[in-house]
Each structure stands twice: as structure tokens, then as C-alpha cells.
Amino acid sequence: MATDVEVVQHGTVEINGCCKKGPGYASPIEAMDGPKESLIYVTCIYTGTGRGKPDYLATVDVDPNSPSYSKVIHRLPMPYEGDGLHHSGWNSCSSCYGDPSAARRYLVLPSLISGRIYAIDTQKDPRAPSLYKVVQPDDVIQKTGLAFPHTAHCLASGEIMVSCLGDKDGNAEGNGFLLLDSDFNVKGRWEKPGHSPLFGYDFWYQPRHNTMISSTWGAPSAFTKGFNLQHVTDGFYGRHLHVYTWPGGELKQTLDLGNTGLLPLEVRFLHNPSEAIGYVGCALTSNMVRFFKNPDGSWGHEVAISVKPVKVQNWILPEMPGLITDFLISLDDRFLYLANWLHGDIRQYNIEDPVNPKLTGQVFVGGVFQKGNTVLAVADDGSTYQVDVPEVQGHRLRGGPQMIQLSLDGKRLYATNSLFSTWDRQFYPELVEKGGHMLQIDVDSEKGGLAINPRFFVDFGAEPDGPSLAHEMRYPGGDCTSDIWI
């Protein structure tokens, strides 16, 4: 297999000749002029649904001129059951743009539950990816002590870095960062010994500022059992950002987000590599927190966007948070998009002034208090209401928007609706019963605005092996949540 990789890479060198181009794009603005997406890869989950099938990677046709538009055209099942596929990343991206020996060939699939990490070959046949290699959890645990892998990012060195959320027993104290070499062999841990904080989750690096920032979800021993508010009080969930030297791996600062920053999940810097500004979505308190570099080189933070909780009837609590579970930033750093999984809306904010984001678009695509559900929202005057969510191609929209992905040109936003099977069963039991789905939202990238595309609906409730849960999405050519520029 390694020889095959070398042949492909050498072929890339010959084709590019003196151009010295590697994968991706020279800048975020150049990426916006990249080819329009025609395929999208989606992690699909059976783990935790009781169906006894392995998770799989679905290939979806997103070319509106194709006869199989909005259809699953290929399914690659994993060789084991119980993996818990979750997030994904590439073996190389725009951080390797100047390296003609690199190729964006392998999609990296960490398994949150089993600890396996799969490398999927998308180059031999992009429409029908194949399994290249499996990194077994025993190898990772033996060499690093890490388990529960989550986020994978490629590095300019050709290595792959994966955040891990705990040790094999699910203790948060065991988290850290795994390094794999370019052929997915376990190299060790990235951070310096003694520089592993409590809790882990997502991370993003900004090389020109010699900084990597990571976020904190919670202890696997807690979140794998479902969400329990008492676990927050008991200290099983995070509220911190961790600031590391890059690429040194030294933990130099911890930002306590306090009670306004509970469960900080996805973390993104602005795409412009010269900017020392980013955001993190804090799920439980439903705030977008902006972080920034101070003149003295330290990092500060402040709440930039607040999604107010909604008073409700017939729910487990008297107030319901939006539960921001994912967000992203357009490649030109003009717009921020966030998904409120419980409220059911996707929002678009103009962040050209990053200190004062302005709401420019909103669309409801589900939610707990949509019409037809038993939960009622309570207005300020005491009256009750529910949100009218349209059907798409005759399908009632289930659950709420969870993962989102934006086209390179910023004009199409894709959304899936599964968070994590245990949490899905708790908050949206019909998702586990009927399966997830995927939508496409049309974006006004000039003045702002969002609208559901009525032509696009992927029903993962109609899969051959039974309803599955759809989570993260990736394009073969890279996207705004995986590419980092140096």
C-alpha cells in the first residue's frame, strides 16, 4: 500500500512540474473560487441505535445536474460494529499547499466509542471510497494512553493530529493529542508531558501566531451515558479554552469561560492566517464566545453572540437553551453560521466587525417546539406558540440542525441532524426510530439570508440496513472547517 501512495505522490510531482503545488489552495480567498462541490461524504451511525450494523461512510451526490442528485450513491461499512463514527478530517489540506509530494487522498475517521481510527482512500474512486488502513485502539492506548478520539487535523509536516477526550476508562484526566505519521502509524502524543489539561474536544491552530486553542466537552464516562444536568454541577463537563504554543505543545494559558461558557465545543479561528481572532460555540449556555490576542501576547475572551433560552411547557426544564452544537465561518471571514439543535434554527451573522456580529439570516429546520410536537414555547406575554417548519419533499423535518458545512463559494449550507446517538435518543427519540436526514440551505452571501432548498433532501431513514444517523460532512476538495492556512 505504501508503494501505491508513493507512486501517486510522485505522479503529482510530475504533473505539477515546477508549479510546486500541493493539496488545497494558496489562500482562503482563492479557495472560494475552487470547483463547485459535486460529492459530499457523510459519517453515518448505527452505534447506539440497537440495529446491530457497523457505522458507514455515505457518499452523497450534490450535483444538481446529476440524475442521482440528493441521493446516497455509495456506502462504505466499517469492518467492526460499535465504533461511533463522529467527526472526520483529511490527511493533508491547504497547510500542505507548498508540498507537491502531499495529496488530499485519505479521509480520517476517528471512532469516538471504540477508539479505532480509519483511513479511507477517496482518490482511487471518489464516488466509491475504500478502506485503506485501520489504527487499532490497543496500539493507541499502549503507546499514548489515549482513547475516545474526536477531531483530526492535518499538519504542514504531513502528520495527522487527533484530539482524544479521555483514557480507556473514560476519565477526563486522560485526554490529550495523538500524533500519527503520514501513513497512519502511531508516533506518540503531541503536547509536552505534564501539559495535558482536564477535558478535551476540538482544536484549531493559527501558525502565524504560534498558537493552538482547544475546547472542552466533558468526561466520556459522563457524556456517553446521555446528558445529565447534575453532571455539570458535579464537574464532569468543561468551561475552559486551553492555549498552547504551536508547534511546541506547551500549555501556556487557560481561559475560564465561567457560567456563560458551559460546554465549549467547536472552536475556529478566522481563516485569514494573520488574524488572531476566533470563536467557540458554548452549547449549554448557547453563547458564541470570541477569543483574541492581547497586545501583551496573552489571550482574552468575551461573549459575542447570545442565544436566549426559551421558556417552555411540557419539557424537562422550564427553560430550553438553543444548544449551539456546531458553527462555522465563511472562507472570506464575513459570515458566521451556527446551529441551535434544540430550538431548531440555523442563524447567519455578519462578523465583518467581529466585536459586533449582526444577525442577517435565520431559518427553522426542526426543533423541539415545532408544530406537531407536544412542547410549547412561552412568549413574554405568557401566550404559547410553536414554530411552523415546512415539509421538504413531503417529509416532516425531524430533530434539529446539528452539523453544518458550507460550500467553498459560501452559497450553499448543508445540515445534518444527529448529535450523538445516546443524546439523540434522549432529546429526539424519533431520530433513532426514523433515522436522520440532510438538508441544503440556500445562502444569500451578499446581503444575508437563508432559505431551505426544496429540491434537496437525503433521507437516512430509508437506508438499506435500516434508519441511520447522519453526522459530519466533508467534500473531496476540502472545506472551511478542515482547511488551515499557514
TrEMBL record:
Pfam families: SBP56 (PF05694). GO terms for molecular function: selenium binding. It comes from the Eukaryota. The keyword Cell membrane does not apply. This is Methanethiol oxidase. InterPro entries: Se-bd. SUPFAM superfamilies: 3-carboxy-cis,cis-mucoante lactonizing enzyme. It comes from Anisodus acutangulus. Keywords: Selenium. Belongs to the selenium-binding protein family.
